[in-house]
Amino acid sequence: MYALADCNNFYASCERVFEPNLEGKPVIVLSNNDGCVIARSEESKKLGFKVGDPIFKLKDCVRKHNVIVRSSNFALYGDMSRRVMQTIRLFSPDVEVYSIDEAFIQLDGLHGRNYEEEMRRMRATILRWTGIPVSIGIGKTKTLAKLANHYAKKNIETGGVAKIGEHPDEMLKTVEVGDIWGIGRQWSKKLRNMGVQTAFDLCQLAPDNIRQSFNIVAMKTAMELHGQKHFAFEQSPEQRKTLLRSRSFANPVTSWQELSEAIASHVTSAAEKLRNESLVSKVLRIFFHTSLFSHTDPHHSAHATVEFTSSTNVTHTIIKEALRLAEPLYKKGFKYKRAGIYLLELSSGSAQKCLFETQEEQVRDKQMMTVLDAINTSMGKGTLHFASTGFTKVMSMRQLQKSPQYTTHWDELPTCVCGLQ
DNA sequence: TCTGGGGTCCTAGGACCC
DNA sequence: TCTGGGGTCCTAGGACCC
User: Fold this and answer.
1) Which of A25, A80, A305, A352 is the most exposed place for a label (fewest CB within 10 A)?
2) CA-to-C1' span, A283 to C8 (A)
Protein backbone atom coordinates (compact mmCIF):
# COMPACT_ATOMS: atom_id res chain seq x y z
CA MET A 1 0.00 0.00 0.00
CA TYR A 2 1.03 3.57 -0.68
CA ALA A 3 0.13 6.84 0.93
CA LEU A 4 0.36 10.20 -0.78
CA ALA A 5 0.83 13.18 1.52
CA ASP A 6 0.08 16.46 -0.21
CA CYS A 7 0.28 19.86 1.45
CA ASN A 8 -2.91 21.89 1.18
CA ASN A 9 -2.51 25.09 -0.85
CA PHE A 10 1.17 24.85 -0.04
CA TYR A 11 2.55 28.32 -0.88
CA ALA A 12 -0.46 30.06 0.64
CA SER A 13 -0.14 27.88 3.75
CA CYS A 14 3.56 28.76 4.09
CA GLU A 15 2.69 32.45 4.09
CA ARG A 16 0.11 31.82 6.80
CA VAL A 17 2.47 30.00 9.13
CA PHE A 18 4.32 33.24 9.84
CA GLU A 19 1.33 35.52 9.45
CA PRO A 20 -1.41 33.72 11.37
CA ASN A 21 -3.75 36.67 10.93
CA LEU A 22 -4.11 35.60 7.29
CA GLU A 23 -6.06 32.55 8.47
CA GLY A 24 -9.57 32.55 7.06
CA LYS A 25 -8.76 35.31 4.57
CA PRO A 26 -8.37 34.87 0.79
CA VAL A 27 -4.64 34.64 -0.05
CA ILE A 28 -2.99 34.37 -3.45
CA VAL A 29 0.69 33.93 -4.33
CA LEU A 30 2.08 35.35 -7.56
CA SER A 31 4.69 34.08 -10.02
CA ASN A 32 8.08 35.72 -10.50
CA ASN A 33 7.75 39.40 -11.44
CA ASP A 34 4.29 39.33 -9.85
CA GLY A 35 2.88 38.21 -13.18
CA CYS A 36 0.15 35.68 -12.54
CA VAL A 37 -1.48 33.57 -9.85
CA ILE A 38 0.39 30.37 -8.91
CA ALA A 39 -1.26 29.45 -5.59
CA ARG A 40 -4.54 30.14 -3.83
CA SER A 41 -5.98 29.60 -0.40
CA GLU A 42 -9.34 27.87 -0.16
CA GLU A 43 -11.09 31.23 0.19
CA SER A 44 -9.57 32.64 -3.00
CA LYS A 45 -10.42 29.45 -4.91
CA LYS A 46 -14.02 30.08 -3.93
CA LEU A 47 -13.76 33.64 -5.25
CA GLY A 48 -12.92 32.17 -8.65
CA PHE A 49 -9.17 32.82 -8.86
CA LYS A 50 -7.45 30.33 -11.17
CA VAL A 51 -3.80 29.32 -11.42
CA GLY A 52 -2.30 31.14 -14.40
CA ASP A 53 -4.64 34.12 -14.26
CA PRO A 54 -2.67 37.31 -14.99
CA ILE A 55 -2.97 39.52 -11.95
CA PHE A 56 -3.47 42.80 -13.83
CA LYS A 57 -6.84 41.49 -15.01
CA LEU A 58 -7.92 40.75 -11.43
CA LYS A 59 -7.07 44.05 -9.74
CA ASP A 60 -10.73 44.91 -9.17
CA CYS A 61 -11.60 41.56 -7.67
CA VAL A 62 -8.55 41.73 -5.38
CA ARG A 63 -9.59 45.13 -4.09
CA LYS A 64 -13.26 44.28 -3.74
CA HIS A 65 -12.68 41.17 -1.63
CA ASN A 66 -9.59 42.36 0.25
CA VAL A 67 -7.54 39.52 -1.16
CA ILE A 68 -4.10 39.21 0.40
CA VAL A 69 -1.47 39.17 -2.35
CA ARG A 70 2.05 37.82 -1.86
CA SER A 71 5.01 37.64 -4.25
CA SER A 72 6.58 34.20 -4.50
CA ASN A 73 9.13 33.43 -1.79
CA PHE A 74 10.78 30.20 -2.87
CA ALA A 75 13.48 30.33 -0.21
CA LEU A 76 10.70 30.07 2.36
CA TYR A 77 8.70 27.39 0.53
CA GLY A 78 11.78 25.27 -0.10
CA ASP A 79 12.73 25.33 3.56
CA MET A 80 9.19 24.58 4.76
CA SER A 81 9.09 21.68 2.31
CA ARG A 82 12.29 20.30 3.81
CA ARG A 83 10.72 20.42 7.28
CA VAL A 84 7.59 18.62 6.14
CA MET A 85 9.60 15.89 4.39
CA GLN A 86 11.82 15.45 7.44
CA THR A 87 8.78 14.93 9.62
CA ILE A 88 7.34 12.39 7.18
CA ARG A 89 10.59 10.41 7.29
CA LEU A 90 10.16 9.90 11.01
CA PHE A 91 7.07 7.83 10.25
CA SER A 92 8.49 5.76 7.41
CA PRO A 93 11.95 5.47 5.89
CA ASP A 94 10.46 4.64 2.48
CA VAL A 95 9.62 8.05 1.11
CA GLU A 96 9.58 9.31 -2.46
CA VAL A 97 9.63 13.10 -2.52
CA TYR A 98 7.52 13.70 -5.59
CA SER A 99 7.42 17.50 -5.65
CA ILE A 100 7.95 20.47 -3.37
CA ASP A 101 4.68 19.74 -1.58
CA GLU A 102 4.05 16.01 -2.11
CA ALA A 103 5.54 12.69 -1.06
CA PHE A 104 4.62 9.07 -1.65
CA ILE A 105 5.13 6.77 1.33
CA GLN A 106 5.41 3.01 1.14
CA LEU A 107 3.34 1.66 3.99
CA ASP A 108 4.30 -2.01 3.94
CA GLY A 109 7.11 -1.32 6.38
CA LEU A 110 4.57 -0.42 9.06
CA HIS A 111 3.54 -4.07 9.34
CA GLY A 112 0.66 -4.79 11.60
CA ARG A 113 -0.16 -1.21 12.38
CA ASN A 114 -3.36 0.41 11.12
CA TYR A 115 -2.33 2.51 8.12
CA GLU A 116 -5.10 5.01 8.47
CA GLU A 117 -4.49 5.65 12.15
CA GLU A 118 -0.77 5.98 11.56
CA MET A 119 -1.34 8.51 8.78
CA ARG A 120 -3.69 10.52 10.98
CA ARG A 121 -0.98 10.65 13.60
CA MET A 122 1.50 11.79 10.95
CA ARG A 123 -0.86 14.45 9.68
CA ALA A 124 -1.34 15.87 13.17
CA THR A 125 2.41 15.84 13.79
CA ILE A 126 3.21 17.70 10.57
CA LEU A 127 0.60 20.31 11.39
CA ARG A 128 1.91 20.78 14.93
CA TRP A 129 5.61 20.87 14.05
CA THR A 130 5.54 22.85 10.80
CA GLY A 131 2.16 24.60 10.75
CA ILE A 132 1.39 23.11 7.32
CA PRO A 133 -1.93 21.27 6.81
CA VAL A 134 -1.63 18.16 4.63
CA SER A 135 -4.09 15.71 3.11
CA ILE A 136 -3.31 12.03 2.85
CA GLY A 137 -4.64 9.39 0.47
CA ILE A 138 -4.03 5.66 0.82
CA GLY A 139 -4.32 3.11 -1.98
CA LYS A 140 -2.86 0.03 -3.63
CA THR A 141 -1.15 1.99 -6.43
CA LYS A 142 0.24 5.49 -6.71
CA THR A 143 -2.69 6.50 -8.91
CA LEU A 144 -5.17 5.21 -6.33
CA ALA A 145 -3.31 6.96 -3.51
CA LYS A 146 -3.51 10.17 -5.53
CA LEU A 147 -7.20 9.64 -6.07
CA ALA A 148 -7.83 8.99 -2.38
CA ASN A 149 -5.89 12.14 -1.62
CA HIS A 150 -8.13 14.11 -3.93
CA TYR A 151 -11.13 12.63 -2.15
CA ALA A 152 -9.73 13.54 1.27
CA LYS A 153 -9.24 17.15 0.14
CA LYS A 154 -12.77 17.46 -1.23
CA ASN A 155 -14.55 15.80 1.69
CA ILE A 156 -14.02 17.51 5.02
CA GLU A 157 -15.62 14.68 6.99
CA THR A 158 -12.59 12.48 6.15
CA GLY A 159 -10.50 14.64 8.47
CA GLY A 160 -7.87 14.91 5.75
CA VAL A 161 -7.15 11.18 5.46
CA ALA A 162 -8.90 8.79 3.03
CA LYS A 163 -8.22 5.21 2.04
CA ILE A 164 -9.33 3.26 -1.01
CA GLY A 165 -9.95 -0.23 0.26
CA GLU A 166 -11.23 -3.46 -1.20
CA HIS A 167 -14.32 -1.93 -2.80
CA PRO A 168 -13.18 1.22 -4.54
CA ASP A 169 -16.12 1.71 -6.92
CA GLU A 170 -18.03 4.15 -4.75
CA MET A 171 -15.06 6.47 -4.43
CA LEU A 172 -14.14 6.10 -8.13
CA LYS A 173 -17.63 7.23 -9.09
CA THR A 174 -17.20 10.53 -7.24
CA VAL A 175 -14.00 11.55 -9.04
CA GLU A 176 -14.17 13.26 -12.44
CA VAL A 177 -11.83 11.97 -15.17
CA GLY A 178 -10.02 15.30 -15.32
CA ASP A 179 -9.09 14.94 -11.64
CA ILE A 180 -7.26 11.65 -12.18
CA TRP A 181 -3.48 11.85 -11.92
CA GLY A 182 -2.17 11.62 -15.48
CA ILE A 183 -5.36 12.72 -17.23
CA GLY A 184 -5.01 16.35 -18.21
CA ARG A 185 -7.11 18.89 -20.06
CA GLN A 186 -6.90 17.49 -23.58
CA TRP A 187 -7.46 13.89 -22.68
CA SER A 188 -10.33 14.55 -20.29
CA LYS A 189 -12.05 16.57 -23.01
CA LYS A 190 -11.68 13.66 -25.43
CA LEU A 191 -12.78 11.17 -22.77
CA ARG A 192 -15.90 13.15 -21.96
CA ASN A 193 -16.75 13.16 -25.66
CA MET A 194 -16.48 9.39 -25.52
CA GLY A 195 -18.98 9.35 -22.66
CA VAL A 196 -16.43 8.84 -19.90
CA GLN A 197 -17.20 11.15 -17.00
CA THR A 198 -15.68 9.57 -13.89
CA ALA A 199 -12.74 7.43 -12.82
CA PHE A 200 -15.19 4.56 -12.57
CA ASP A 201 -16.20 5.03 -16.24
CA LEU A 202 -12.55 4.99 -17.29
CA CYS A 203 -12.14 1.63 -15.56
CA GLN A 204 -14.86 0.21 -17.79
CA LEU A 205 -12.91 0.88 -21.01
CA ALA A 206 -10.79 -1.89 -22.49
CA PRO A 207 -7.05 -1.19 -21.97
CA ASP A 208 -6.24 -1.81 -25.65
CA ASN A 209 -8.90 0.68 -26.59
CA ILE A 210 -7.35 3.32 -24.34
CA ARG A 211 -3.92 2.65 -25.73
CA GLN A 212 -5.16 3.10 -29.26
CA SER A 213 -7.11 6.28 -28.61
CA PHE A 214 -4.46 7.84 -26.35
CA ASN A 215 -1.11 6.25 -25.50
CA ILE A 216 0.52 3.74 -23.26
CA VAL A 217 0.68 6.10 -20.30
CA ALA A 218 -3.08 6.59 -20.35
CA MET A 219 -3.50 2.83 -20.48
CA LYS A 220 -1.24 2.33 -17.48
CA THR A 221 -3.16 4.99 -15.58
CA ALA A 222 -6.41 3.12 -16.16
CA MET A 223 -4.84 -0.16 -15.07
CA GLU A 224 -3.52 1.48 -11.91
CA LEU A 225 -7.11 2.41 -11.10
CA HIS A 226 -7.82 -1.32 -11.22
CA GLY A 227 -5.14 -1.84 -8.61
CA GLN A 228 -2.40 -3.09 -10.95
CA LYS A 229 0.96 -1.48 -10.28
CA HIS A 230 2.53 0.22 -13.32
CA PHE A 231 4.22 3.27 -11.86
CA ALA A 232 7.19 2.34 -9.72
CA PHE A 233 8.00 3.74 -6.31
CA GLU A 234 11.29 5.61 -6.72
CA GLN A 235 12.95 6.29 -3.44
CA SER A 236 16.17 7.77 -4.78
CA PRO A 237 15.47 10.25 -7.53
CA GLU A 238 16.60 9.34 -11.04
CA GLN A 239 19.44 11.42 -12.39
CA ARG A 240 18.07 14.46 -14.17
CA LYS A 241 18.23 14.52 -17.96
CA THR A 242 17.90 18.21 -18.73
CA LEU A 243 18.36 21.49 -16.93
CA LEU A 244 16.56 24.70 -17.88
CA ARG A 245 17.12 28.25 -16.69
CA SER A 246 14.87 30.93 -18.06
CA ARG A 247 12.94 33.93 -16.92
CA SER A 248 10.75 36.71 -18.20
CA PHE A 249 12.21 40.19 -17.87
CA ALA A 250 10.52 42.59 -15.51
CA ASN A 251 10.98 45.22 -18.22
CA PRO A 252 11.47 44.39 -21.92
CA VAL A 253 15.08 44.18 -23.05
CA THR A 254 16.21 45.80 -26.27
CA SER A 255 20.03 45.96 -26.14
CA TRP A 256 22.50 43.17 -26.79
CA GLN A 257 24.31 44.20 -23.62
CA GLU A 258 21.30 43.42 -21.44
CA LEU A 259 20.31 40.31 -23.35
CA SER A 260 23.81 38.87 -23.15
CA GLU A 261 23.98 39.61 -19.41
CA ALA A 262 20.73 37.73 -18.90
CA ILE A 263 21.98 34.73 -20.85
CA ALA A 264 25.29 34.72 -18.97
CA SER A 265 23.38 34.89 -15.67
CA HIS A 266 21.26 31.89 -16.64
CA VAL A 267 24.39 29.97 -17.55
CA THR A 268 25.94 30.88 -14.21
CA SER A 269 22.96 29.54 -12.33
CA ALA A 270 22.63 26.39 -14.43
CA ALA A 271 26.34 25.55 -14.23
CA GLU A 272 26.27 25.95 -10.45
CA LYS A 273 23.37 23.52 -10.27
CA LEU A 274 25.22 21.12 -12.55
CA ARG A 275 28.33 21.13 -10.35
CA ASN A 276 26.17 20.81 -7.28
CA GLU A 277 24.76 17.57 -8.66
CA SER A 278 28.13 16.38 -10.02
CA LEU A 279 26.89 16.45 -13.59
CA VAL A 280 28.30 17.63 -16.90
CA SER A 281 26.44 18.64 -20.04
CA LYS A 282 27.18 17.81 -23.65
CA VAL A 283 24.65 20.03 -25.43
CA LEU A 284 23.69 23.66 -24.94
CA ARG A 285 20.64 25.42 -26.32
CA ILE A 286 19.91 29.12 -25.97
CA PHE A 287 16.69 30.95 -26.74
CA PHE A 288 15.05 34.33 -26.44
CA HIS A 289 11.85 35.85 -27.70
CA THR A 290 9.53 38.84 -27.59
CA SER A 291 6.18 38.87 -25.79
CA LEU A 292 3.82 36.08 -26.78
CA PHE A 293 0.83 38.26 -25.96
CA SER A 294 1.55 41.59 -27.57
CA HIS A 295 -0.58 42.47 -30.60
CA THR A 296 1.21 45.71 -31.29
CA ASP A 297 4.96 45.01 -31.03
CA PRO A 298 6.75 42.97 -33.72
CA HIS A 299 7.53 39.38 -32.76
CA HIS A 300 10.89 37.66 -32.87
CA SER A 301 11.88 34.27 -31.52
CA ALA A 302 15.36 32.80 -31.74
CA HIS A 303 17.01 29.60 -30.60
CA ALA A 304 20.22 27.73 -31.37
CA THR A 305 21.93 24.56 -30.21
CA VAL A 306 25.55 23.48 -29.99
CA GLU A 307 27.37 20.36 -28.92
CA PHE A 308 30.49 20.81 -26.78
CA THR A 309 33.64 19.00 -27.86
CA SER A 310 33.62 17.47 -24.42
CA SER A 311 30.94 17.56 -21.72
CA THR A 312 31.42 20.36 -19.24
CA ASN A 313 30.09 22.17 -16.19
CA VAL A 314 32.60 25.04 -16.31
CA THR A 315 30.77 28.35 -16.18
CA HIS A 316 33.05 30.40 -18.42
CA THR A 317 33.24 27.68 -21.07
CA ILE A 318 29.46 27.58 -21.30
CA ILE A 319 29.06 31.37 -21.20
CA LYS A 320 31.47 31.74 -24.10
CA GLU A 321 29.54 29.25 -26.23
CA ALA A 322 26.17 30.67 -25.25
CA LEU A 323 27.09 34.22 -26.23
CA ARG A 324 28.74 33.05 -29.44
CA LEU A 325 25.47 31.31 -30.36
CA ALA A 326 23.21 34.16 -29.34
CA GLU A 327 24.98 37.19 -30.75
CA PRO A 328 24.25 36.60 -34.47
CA LEU A 329 20.58 35.90 -33.65
CA TYR A 330 20.00 39.13 -31.74
CA LYS A 331 18.11 41.77 -33.73
CA LYS A 332 17.97 45.43 -32.90
CA GLY A 333 14.57 47.05 -32.49
CA PHE A 334 12.75 44.18 -30.78
CA LYS A 335 11.46 44.20 -27.21
CA TYR A 336 12.64 40.88 -25.81
CA LYS A 337 10.55 39.55 -22.96
CA ARG A 338 12.23 36.30 -22.08
CA ALA A 339 15.56 34.52 -22.44
CA GLY A 340 16.88 31.18 -21.30
CA ILE A 341 19.29 28.31 -21.70
CA TYR A 342 18.87 24.56 -21.81
CA LEU A 343 21.56 22.07 -20.84
CA LEU A 344 20.96 18.66 -22.43
CA GLU A 345 22.55 15.23 -22.50
CA LEU A 346 23.62 15.41 -18.88
CA SER A 347 25.84 12.71 -17.48
CA SER A 348 27.70 12.07 -14.28
CA GLY A 349 31.11 13.30 -15.21
CA SER A 350 32.99 10.26 -16.41
CA ALA A 351 32.42 11.37 -20.01
CA GLN A 352 35.18 11.06 -22.59
CA LYS A 353 37.66 13.90 -22.60
CA CYS A 354 38.63 15.93 -25.65
CA LEU A 355 41.85 14.96 -27.40
CA PHE A 356 42.87 18.59 -27.93
CA GLU A 357 42.28 19.89 -24.45
CA THR A 358 45.31 19.84 -22.26
CA GLN A 359 45.30 18.31 -18.82
CA GLU A 360 46.47 21.62 -17.33
CA GLU A 361 43.47 23.49 -18.71
CA GLN A 362 41.04 21.01 -17.22
CA VAL A 363 42.73 21.03 -13.85
CA ARG A 364 42.83 24.83 -13.82
CA ASP A 365 39.14 25.16 -14.72
CA LYS A 366 38.13 22.63 -12.13
CA GLN A 367 40.11 24.37 -9.41
CA MET A 368 38.69 27.72 -10.43
CA MET A 369 35.12 26.44 -10.17
CA THR A 370 35.85 24.87 -6.78
CA VAL A 371 37.12 28.19 -5.45
CA LEU A 372 34.24 30.10 -7.03
CA ASP A 373 31.65 27.79 -5.47
CA ALA A 374 33.36 27.83 -2.08
CA ILE A 375 33.40 31.63 -1.95
CA ASN A 376 29.81 31.98 -3.13
CA THR A 377 28.63 29.36 -0.67
CA SER A 378 30.27 30.97 2.34
CA MET A 379 29.84 34.63 1.41
CA GLY A 380 26.60 34.61 -0.55
CA LYS A 381 25.40 33.89 -4.06
CA GLY A 382 27.01 36.08 -6.69
CA THR A 383 29.78 37.40 -4.44
CA LEU A 384 32.19 36.30 -7.15
CA HIS A 385 30.83 36.33 -10.68
CA PHE A 386 31.85 36.70 -14.29
CA ALA A 387 31.87 40.22 -15.73
CA SER A 388 29.68 39.09 -18.62
CA THR A 389 26.75 38.69 -16.23
CA GLY A 390 26.92 42.46 -15.74
CA PHE A 391 26.35 44.83 -12.88
CA THR A 392 23.10 46.42 -13.98
CA LYS A 393 20.62 43.92 -12.52
CA VAL A 394 18.72 43.13 -15.72
CA MET A 395 17.68 39.95 -14.02
CA SER A 396 16.24 41.43 -10.87
CA MET A 397 12.59 40.62 -10.36
CA ARG A 398 9.64 42.76 -9.59
CA GLN A 399 8.40 41.44 -6.25
CA LEU A 400 6.46 44.10 -4.49
CA GLN A 401 4.71 41.98 -1.88
CA LYS A 402 7.31 39.48 -0.83
CA SER A 403 7.28 38.14 2.71
CA PRO A 404 10.58 37.86 4.64
CA GLN A 405 12.75 34.76 4.30
CA TYR A 406 11.81 33.88 7.87
CA THR A 407 13.69 30.63 8.12
CA THR A 408 16.76 31.02 5.89
CA HIS A 409 18.12 34.56 6.50
CA TRP A 410 19.43 35.74 9.86
CA ASP A 411 18.33 39.30 9.11
CA GLU A 412 14.78 38.22 8.42
CA LEU A 413 14.02 35.92 11.35
CA PRO A 414 10.58 36.53 12.81
CA THR A 415 10.94 38.33 16.11
CA CYS A 416 7.33 38.61 17.17
CA VAL A 417 4.81 35.93 16.33
CA CYS A 418 1.44 35.29 18.00
CA GLY A 419 1.95 38.14 20.44
CA LEU A 420 5.07 36.65 22.03
CA GLN A 421 7.89 39.14 22.60
C1' DT B 1 1.49 48.64 -19.00
C1' DC B 2 1.17 44.17 -16.83
C1' DT B 3 0.47 36.79 -18.69
C1' DG B 4 5.89 31.51 -14.32
C1' DG B 5 9.43 28.30 -14.33
C1' DG B 6 10.62 24.17 -14.10
C1' DG B 7 10.45 18.87 -15.53
C1' DT B 8 9.06 13.89 -17.92
C1' DC B 9 7.53 10.70 -21.52
C1' DC B 10 5.41 9.23 -26.02
C1' DT B 11 4.53 9.33 -30.97
C1' DA B 12 4.82 10.26 -35.79
C1' DG B 13 7.47 11.15 -39.50
C1' DG B 14 11.68 11.71 -41.95
C1' DA B 15 16.36 10.44 -42.86
C1' DC B 16 19.31 7.02 -43.11
C1' DC B 17 21.08 1.89 -43.42
C1' DC B 18 20.99 -2.99 -45.67
C1' DT C 1 3.82 -0.76 -66.90
C1' DC C 2 5.69 -2.39 -62.88
C1' DT C 3 8.61 -0.02 -57.42
C1' DG C 4 10.12 -4.64 -50.95
C1' DG C 5 10.79 -5.44 -46.47
C1' DG C 6 13.28 -4.92 -42.70
C1' DG C 7 15.73 -1.98 -39.40
C1' DT C 8 17.75 2.42 -36.43
C1' DC C 9 18.16 7.08 -35.02
C1' DC C 10 16.75 11.78 -34.54
C1' DT C 11 13.59 15.61 -33.99
C1' DA C 12 9.54 18.28 -33.27
C1' DG C 13 5.45 18.55 -31.22
C1' DG C 14 2.20 17.37 -27.96
C1' DA C 15 0.61 15.35 -23.94
C1' DC C 16 1.23 15.12 -19.00
C1' DC C 17 3.10 16.57 -14.00
C1' DC C 18 4.26 20.13 -10.11
Assistant:
1) A352
2) 22
